[in-house]
Design brief:
The structure holds two protein chains of two kinds.
Chain A: H1 2-25, H2 29-54, H3 57-85, H4 97-121, H5 130-146, H6 150-172, H7 177-205
Helix pairs in contact in A: 1-2, 1-5, 1-6, 2-3, 2-6, 3-7, 4-5, 5-6, 6-7
Chain B: H1 2-32, H2 42-52, H3 63-82, H4 98-117, H5 122-153, H6 158-167, H7 175-191, H8 210-213, H9 219-244, H10 255-282, H11 291-311
Helix pairs in contact in B: 1-2, 1-3, 1-9, 1-10, 2-9, 3-4, 3-9, 4-5, 5-6, 5-7, 5-11, 7-9, 7-11, 9-10
The chains are: A mainly alpha, B mainly alpha.
Chain lengths: 218, 313
């Protein structure tokens, strides 16, 4: 039973990580949004699996909230932005695609290295997925610093959050529901603020390329 | 003794089925695009026709140009003896493991590129340089992807990997296996010259890879190269089928189990051909400069496969 549980967790975490890697491989905003949506859906499924096998009813609520917020609401808001920014493709990131992918692979290996003590310490059957969650956190950070378009960076930030949520679920069977709800509210507010920022950047520079912000210095 | 007979039968079956597989793939693609399509046995007729035709060789070509088709064909046929297509274990399992398979396939590609360079036509040189780029990027991915499986089975022997997966069915849905399948599938498309890396349907397109190298060939030389290419496709498909979904491969030599093995092989080939046909009508060819990115993605998948199967061991 534990074997199946642990394998499902690793499989789910691998899928979540792969949807994160799509951010480095594809260029269009549409692909980013669907990758984020599917990642969130898989994340909520993993949470539900942990709830089922760990016999923790609070986690079902977390899974449902995850699905509603990150699987439905935020993607809908992103799609509304996409209509305006669909032409803004990630054509010249700071690091080119092939190199980014290889760096992402190395970052995942690094994730394995730094979570080794955690994995060795933990007794939970979910522990094997933790390095992948840490890998996702590192890869998303890399997306945020290596991509130029504001929208890509926002999606990178959202995926970073997904990685942290996955780490929490796998590492400790989730944090208390009230904290989780606070985090969700935080993400939603943060996202709305960033959305306003993006609209403002677009209005000022007619582009959502953050390199343009350098012009403010002069 | 029976093992050696089986070995020869397996190679003969692979040789016989290979053109049919290409025909099936073309037919499925045509039907999906609402065309009538050539019949499945069309490649057999093409091969028969090519074997009867006269050979025209450029006066600039050296002996290498004449030798290459035989090397390509022979190295590909040699691989069919080492890959578990119908049954495990085979007597030649000790002769070569997955590394030998990978490098035998690469040997064929190497000689084909040399032959492309030899007559001095610009198309041949262009195709050869592209083929080498793709091969150099695809090779580490194949090795890593199969290493992910070898780690689980504790052996780099392909027959052993199949036997171990059959003994423990749970491993076939483990993340290591699934990621390695994804990586190997992308590499299969790249190595056998399918979309999105190369377009097998057109000649004389400026982005061609495989077709550019063999542009100078005619007659029986061309037939041998085409046949070897079809065989390579069959080898990769049966690797994908038998390494990841090994059920149906015969473990005992009885008429019933061999019949089951042939049936399941056909079923796996048809399913994979269908998957590739659907994929090919849904996507466009990648720009040449994006091909390394695709292969980097498959490399990362293979890397993840190795790490996760190493961790779960």
């Amino acid at each position: 039973m534990d074997g199946v549980f642990s394998q499902l967790c690793v499989l789910g975490s691998s899928l979540v990580l792969i949807f994160g890697l799509i951010l480095l491989w594809r260029r269009g905003v549409t692909a980013y949004i669907s990758a984020f949506t599917w990642q969130s859906v898989v994340l909520s499924v993993v949470t539900a699996i942990v709830a089922y096998f760990g016999d923790d009813h609070e986690l079902y609520w977390v899974a449902a909230a995850l699905f509603l917020l990150k699987g439905l609401l935020i993607p809908r808001l992103l799609r509304r932005m996409e209509r305006r920014f669909a032409a803004e493709r990630e054509l010249e990131p700071y690091v080119n695609t092939a190199t980014s992918l290889v760096i992402a692979g190395l970052l995942v290996l690094f994730g394995y290295a730094i979570t080794r003590p955690l994995v060795a310490l933990s007794q939970l059957p979910t522990r094997a997925g933790m390095p992948l969650a840490m890998g996702l956190v590192l890869v998303s950070l890399f997306v945020v610093i290596s991509r130029k378009k504001a929208l890509t960076q926002v999606i990178g930030f959202l995926m970073l959050e997904n990685g942290l949520a996955l780490l929490a679920v796998l590492g400790t069977y989730g944090i208390p529901l009230i904290v989780e709800l606070g985090v969700f509210l935080d993400i939603l507010m943060g996202f709305l603020v960033m959305q306003i920022f993006i609209y403002q950047i677009h209005e000022t520079f007619e582009s959502i390329d953050v390199e343009q912000l350098n012009r403010l210095k002069h | 003794m029976i093992g050696y007979v089986l070995e020869v039968a397996q190679a003969a079956l692979a040789l016989l089925l290979a053109p049919g597989l290409v025909g099936l793939l073309r037919w499925m693609k045509a039907r999906l695009q609402n065309r009538r399509g050539a019949p499945v046995w069309q490649p057999y007729s093409e091969l028969a026709k090519l074997f009867q035709k006269e050979v025209v060789v450029s006066s600039n070509a050296s002996w290498l140009f004449r030798a290459a088709p035989f090397v390509v064909f022979a190295s590909t046929v040699a691989v069919t003896f080492l890959v578990p297509i119908l049954a495990v274990p085979l007597p030649f399992d000790g002769v070569g493991d997955l590394l030998v398979v990978v490098y035998l396939l690469l040997l064929g590609a190497f000689f084909l590129s040399l032959a492309g360079l030899d007559p001095g036509s610009p198309f041949g040189g262009m195709g050869a340089s592209r083929e080498m780029t793709v091969a150099a990027l695809a090779e580490p991915t194949i090795a890593l992807a199969i290493f992910a499986l070898a780690l689980g089975a504790g052996s780099t022997n392909l027959g052993q990997i199949v036997a171990r997966t059959m003994a423990d069915p749970g491993t076939s849905v483990s993340p290591g296996h699934l990621l390695a399948f994804g990586a190997l599938f992308i590499v299969t498309l790249a190595e056998t010259g399918r979309l999105p890396v190369d377009n097998p349907a057109t000649h004389l397109e400026l982005t061609m890879i495989h077709e550019a190298m063999i542009l100078e060939y005619s007659g029986r030389y061309l037939a041998l190269i085409e046949w070897a290419a079809a065989l390579k496709l069959l080898i990769f498909f049966s690797l994908l089928g038998n390494l990841f979904v090994p059920w149906g491969v015969a473990v005992t030599v009885t008429p019933v189990s061999l019949a089951v093995a042939v049936g399941s092989l056909l079923a796996k080939l048809i399913v994979l051909a269908g998957a590739v046909a659907v994929l090919e009508i849904r996507i466009a060819k990648l720009r040449l400069f994006r091909v390394p990115e695709l292969l980097a993605a498959s490399f990362v998948l293979a890397l993840l496969a190795v790490t996760s199967s190493f961790l779960l061991r």
